[in-house]
Structure to design on (561 residues):
RNA sequence: CGGGGCGUGGCUCAGCCCGGUUAGAGCGCCUGGUUCGGGACCAGGAGGUCGGAGGUUCAAAUCCUCUCGCCCCGACCA
C-alpha cells in the first residue's frame, strides 16, 4: 500500500480524551475513530489488525473442531424471556423501540435454540459452535477506548455435550485453544479462577492481562502461580484472638463515633478488637454481616452465601430495622439472621455497635452472645497477605479480562428445552459450556504491552503490514526509481508492505510516522546510501539500524520476518 | 445513577471570571517558491451557526435557565 494513497490519518498531537496508551496510539495511528461514547469505527489500518486477530482465533477454534456460525445480532425478545435474561441483563441490554427485538449481548440463547430439536441424540455430540460477531451492551460507562465499548467484536463459542465428563473435555480444548491464541498474539497473560456471575454455571476461568486500565482486580502468587479474581480469591489471615476470659457486656457512650478508625482512637483499642456491621436486604429480609475491623464485605462472596435478591440496606431502613444509624449497629439485639466472616470465628471481648446511636458495646463474646452465628469467607483479599497454597505473599493488581470460559451446565438447555436421548433412550438436557474472547481487547492489550514513547511496536504476527518502506526524497529520480523497484520486488515476494512514497513529507516526518505506526522492519531509501547501492534497515523493536546492499536486502529480510 | 471536568475551524488550545472592534494562536490543509536523513522555512490563501434551545441586555463565545454530547472518579458489569 502506498501511503500517498492510503487513508491512514495519523495524529501528531495526543487526543485530549484518551488517557491510556493503547487508546492514544490507536487514535494517533489512525486505526480507529470514535463515533459516540463506546462506539468506534475501525479505519483500514485498524481493521487490518482486526482481521489478523480474527484469523488466529479462527485457526485455533477450527483446530479444536469448532464450526463457525454467523448469527443475527437482532433477536426476538421472546427467546430471551424464556431464560429470564431480559430481566437479568436489565438496562445493559439494548431494546429496539418499534418492534419486540433486542440487540444480543451474547448468544447462549440463540445457539441453544438452534441445538434444540436438531442435536437430539448422544451420537450428535460433542459439538463446538462458534462465531466472531458484533455484540451490543448498553454499558453505563464506556471507557479506555475499545476496551469497554457498547458495541464490540467477540468470539463466542458454545459446546454441547452429553455429560459433565465430556464437558470437561470440551472445556479443556478451549482452555488449550485460548492459550495458543494469546501466545500467538504475544500477550503476557495469566489465568484466574473467577465468579461466573450472571452467566450461570458452576465453574469459570478468566484469561487476564495485568494493566492499570483493567476493571478487574486479581490476586496472584508469584511463587506457586495461584491466581484468582478478588471476587473469589482467598488468603491466609489471622483471625481475631480468643482471650482466656470473656469480659462482661458493657455499654459505652461514644458520641460522634462512626467509623472503626474513630472507635479505635476513641477507646484506644486495636481494629482487630472491633466487629463491623453491615446490613443487607436478602429476599426482603434483613441480614447482618459482621466483619473484623476494617475488612470490606466482598459482595460476590456474599451473594454466593445468600443467593437471590441481595442489596445493601438504605439508611432509613437501617434506622427502622436496628434503631440506629450506620456506625452504631451491632449484633446484640439484632432481629434477623446474622452471619460473620471467618476471621471473627469464636472471638470474644469485641467492640461493636449497640443498635443505639452514639453507643457501642464492649465485651462481646460471639460464642456466648450471638447464638447460631454462621461463619463464611466474606472478605476481600488484600495485597501482602499469605497465599493459601504455598505460604508466600500475594500480589494484588488490576487486570483486563481478555477471555472467559464457563462450564454452563444445563441452565440454557433446560430453560429452552434442548434435550437429547442417551444410550438408554432416556431424555437428558444437553450439558453446555460457553467461551468468549474480546477481539478489540486483544488488540488494545497487545498495544498496552508493546509500545514506547514513539509509538506502537508490532510483532510480525499482528502487524498490519510487515515492512515499512520509505523513500526519503521522492523528488530525486534515483530515489523514486530505486524505492519503487524495491516496493514491487517485495510485493512480488509476498510481503505486506507499506510504502511511504509521499513527495512533500520531510525525512523526519516519515521517520516519526514510521516509529508511530511501529511496523516491525523499516527500509529506508535515501540518495546517499543509494550511491553505494545500499539502503538502511531499522528494526523497530530494538532500534538497531544498519545499511545493506540492495542485492542482499531480500535474503536479510528472510531472517528478519 | 452520584461526584468532578470539558464542549470555540480537521487537531491541540487561548479568549469567558470583569459582556462592547472584523473571534485568535500553533499544528494541519490549498497555491507558489526555497529546503530535503529525525516532525523545515518564506509569501499568499481557504476554513468557525463559539454543542443546541431559550432568556437577560442597546449589545452575549462571555451572564442566567434548560438541554445534548464527551472525558475522568465512583456505583454497576458478563
Amino acid at each position: 500500500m502506498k501511503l500517498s494513497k492510503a487513508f491512514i490519518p495519523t495524529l501528531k498531537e495526543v487526543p485530549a480524551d484518551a488517557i491510556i496508551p493503547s487508546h492514544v496510539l490507536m487514535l494517533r495511528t489512525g486505526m480507529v475513530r470514535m463515533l459516540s461514547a463506546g462506539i468506534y469505527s475501525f479505519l483500514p489500518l485498524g481493521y487490518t489488525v482486526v482481521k489478523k486477530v480474527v484469523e488466529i482465533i479462527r485457526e485455533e477454534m477450527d483446530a479444536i473442531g469448532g464450526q463457525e456460525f454467523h448469527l443475527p445480532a437482532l433477536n426476538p425478545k421472546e427467546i430471551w424471556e424464556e431464560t429470564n435474561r431480559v430481566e437479568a441483563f436489565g438496562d445493559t441490554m439494548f431494546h429496539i423501540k418499534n418492534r419486540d427485538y433486542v440487540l444480543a449481548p451474547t448468544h447462549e440463547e440463540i445457539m441453544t435454540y438452534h441445538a434444540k430439536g436438531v442435536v437430539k441424540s448422544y451420537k450428535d455430540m460433542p459439538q463446538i459452535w462458534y462465531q466472531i460477531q458484533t455484540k451490543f451492551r448498553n454499558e453505563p460507562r464506556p471507557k479506555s477506548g475499545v476496551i469497554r465499548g457498547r458495541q464490540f467484536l467477540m468470539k463466542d463459542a458454545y459446546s454441547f455435550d452429553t455429560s459433565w465428563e465430556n464437558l470437561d473435555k470440551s472445556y479443556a480444548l478451549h482452555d488449550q485453544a485460548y492459550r495458543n491464541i494469546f501466545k500467538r498474539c504475544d500477550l503476557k497473560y495469566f489465568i484466574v479462577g473467577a465468579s461466573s456471575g450472571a452467566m450461570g454455571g458452576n465453574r469459570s476461568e478468566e484469561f487476564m492481562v495485568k494493566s492499570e486500565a483493567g476493571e478487574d482486580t486479581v490476586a496472584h502468587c508469584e511463587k506457586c502461580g495461584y491466581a484468582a479474581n478478588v471476587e473469589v480469591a482467598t488468603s491466609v489471615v489471622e483471625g481475631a484472638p480468643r482471650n482466656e476470659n470473656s469480659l462482661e457486656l458493657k455499654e459505652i457512650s461514644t458520641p460522634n463515633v462512626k467509623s472503626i478508625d474513630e472507635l479505635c482512637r476513641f477507646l484506644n483499642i486495636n481494629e482487630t478488637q472491633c466487629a463491623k456491621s453491615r446490613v443487607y436486604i436478602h429476599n426482603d429480609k434483613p441480614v447482618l454481616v459482621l466483619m473484623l475491623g476494617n475488612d470490606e464485605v466482598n459482595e460476590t462472596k456474599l451473594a454466593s452465601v445468600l443467593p437471590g435478591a441481595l442489596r445493601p440496606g438504605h439508611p432509613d431502613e437501617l434506622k427502622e430495622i436496628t434503631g440506629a444509624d450506620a456506625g452504631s449497629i451491632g449484633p446484640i439485639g439484632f432481629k434477623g439472621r446474622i452471619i460473620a466472616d471467618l476471621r471473627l470465628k469464636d472471638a470474644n471481648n469485641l467492640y461493636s455497635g449497640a443498635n443505639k446511636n452514639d453507643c457501642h458495646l464492649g465485651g462481646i463474646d460471639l460464642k456466648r452472645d450471638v447464638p447460631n452465628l454462621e461463619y463464611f469467607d466474606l472478605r476481600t483479599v488484600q495485597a501482602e497477605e499469605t497465599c493459601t497454597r504455598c505460604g508466600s505473599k500475594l500480589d494484588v493488581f488490576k487486570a483486563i479480562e481478555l477471555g472467559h470460559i464457563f462450564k454452563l451446565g444445563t441452565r440454557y438447555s433446560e430453560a429452552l428445552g434442548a434435550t437429547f436421548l442417551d444410550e438408554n433412550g432416556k431424555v437428558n438436557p444437553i450439558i453446555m459450556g460457553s467461551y468468549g474472547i474480546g477481539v478489540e481487547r486483544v488488540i488494545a492489550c497487545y498495544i498496552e504491552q508493546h509500545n514506547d514513547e514513539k509509538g506502537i511496536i508490532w510483532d510480525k504476527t499482528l502487524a498490519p503490514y510487515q515492512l515499512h518502506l520509505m523513500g526519503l526524497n521522492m523528488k530525486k529520480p534515483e530515489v523514486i526509481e530505486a524505492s519503487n523497484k524495491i516496493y514491487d520486488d517485495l510485493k512480488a515476494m509476498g510481503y505486506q508492505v507499506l510504502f511511504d512514497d509521499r513527495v512533500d513529507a520531510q525525512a523526519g516526518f516519515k521517520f516519526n510516522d514510521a516509529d508511530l505506526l511501529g511496523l516491525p522492519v523499516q527500509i529506508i531509501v535515501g540518495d546517499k546510501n543509494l550511491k553505494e547501492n545500499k539502503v538502511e534497515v531499522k528494526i523497530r523493536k530494538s532500534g538497531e539500524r544498519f545499511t545493506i546492499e540492495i542485492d542482499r536486502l531480500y535474503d536479510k529480510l528472510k531472517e528478519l520476518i
